[in-house]
Amino acid sequence: MKKYHDNTQCIHGPEHFEDPHGALTAPLYQTSTFAFKDAAQGAARFAGEEAGYIYTRLGNPTTRELEQKLAQLEEMEDAAATATGMGAVSASVLSFLQQGDHLIASSALYGCSFALFAHMLPKFGIEVTFVDMTNETELKAALKPNSKMIFAETPINPNMTVLDLKMLGDFAKQHQLISVIDNTFMTPLLQKPKHFGIDIVIHSATKYLNGHGDVVAGIVCGTKEHIELIKLTVLKDIGATISPHDAWLINRGLKTLAVRMARHCESAQKVAEYLEKHPKVSKVYYPGLASHPGYKFLGEQMKGAGGVIAFEIVGSLQDGEAFINATELCTLAVSLGDPETLIQHPASMTHSPYTPEERQAAGISDGLIRISVGLEDVEDIIADLENAFRGF
Ligand SMILES: *Cc1c(COP(=O)(O)O)cnc(C)c1O
């Protein structure tokens, strides 16, 4: 199915696109519905006897282009695009789990994934156990007769703990669990969970895949059978469907994914090395640093360390606040994967859905700062940080 190497594939898309006018870029099908030739055709489409589109919540050609491209990049059979990354997270759990099932989830997760699992799933009778997935013993101990799925992300937001995908994939296979990995921080260019036996790979396409900070969207990749189930259950009936316009923007963003990721990794490495030497920084979390436990996964599991760094400032919570207020170029905003460098404080922002105890268990201290290194000249990013450090 995959014809070219990744960088070429990002640009050239799933299929040869034939436009009557010879357009270079596939057009945007900004339409809610699709007209049928006659009653028989409408009936055949609904019965699934004839391929073709019916209504955009069920499918759209622009959305389909995005889905096929992502499935190819992840080397999985198919994909379903969603309205947001959380739409992808919720679709992946709600399609496969039902009352009485047990989910084993990583104790450190994107804040809203954690909130969904900790506070919402139990309302529907789904049991959830949170475990430190770096610890195989703890993972095994969480197993119950009704365990159905494991869910994790790697590297883990925000302190970039790297999980062993092979260990997780093998564990899931051995116990017949569906394995789900949120691959947002790596993109398929830096990490392909499928290579380690993972069943479902999801993304917040809001981040690197789109890469321009102007869309919220998500995507789920899996087998044809899994994706069909997701589309026919959660997407069709709950409705977290992506807008075709957003899908079109992501198709455009994907064309530069390879060059953007290379630059994000290169600059983040320089910023991490700068921070590690800084006297006002007590700890830097970045898998590209030999001091980080995730460093050993570079190569085999991850082709690069990505663009996100977390670090601890020497001083109080107030010093941390003063630091982020003092940056000028680095924008105080949540999200990541944009051209702009973004800086934020997980304890009061992205991870505020956690209670203080839950944050402690997930290793998120009050002094932790997260930076998503953008595409600016790295000298300017470092100069901005240096200037902010001078203020306290
Ligand atoms: C942002 C993010 C999400 C949620 O995505 P949205 O597009 O904001 O809904 C899920 N997982 C990770 C790792 C994220 O960074």
UniProtKB/TrEMBL annotation:
Cofactor: pyridoxal 5'-phosphate
Modified residues (N6-(pyridoxal phosphate)lysine): 207
InterPro entries hit by this protein: Cys/Met-Metab_PyrdxlP-dep_enz, Cys_met_metab_PP, L-Met_gamma_lys, PyrdxlP-dep_Trfase, PyrdxlP-dep_Trfase_major, PyrdxlP-dep_Trfase_small
Keywords, sorted A to Z: Lyase, Pyridoxal phosphate
Transmembrane segments: none
GO molecular function, one term: pyridoxal phosphate binding
GO cellular component entries: cytoplasm
UniProt xrefs under Gene3D superfamilies: Aspartate Aminotransferase, domain 1, Type I PLP-dependent aspartate aminotransferase-like (Major domain)
Domain of life: Bacteria
Catalytic activity, EC: 4.4.1.11
UniProt keyword annotation of Calcium present: no
GO annotation, biological process: transsulfuration
Catalytic reaction equation(s): L-homocysteine + H2O = 2-oxobutanoate + hydrogen sulfide + NH4(+) + H(+); L-methionine + H2O = methanethiol + 2-oxobutanoate + NH4(+)
Annotated family: Belongs to the trans-sulfuration enzymes family. L-methionine gamma-lyase subfamily.
Subunit structure: Homotetramer; dimer of active dimers.
The protein's name: L-methionine gamma-lyase
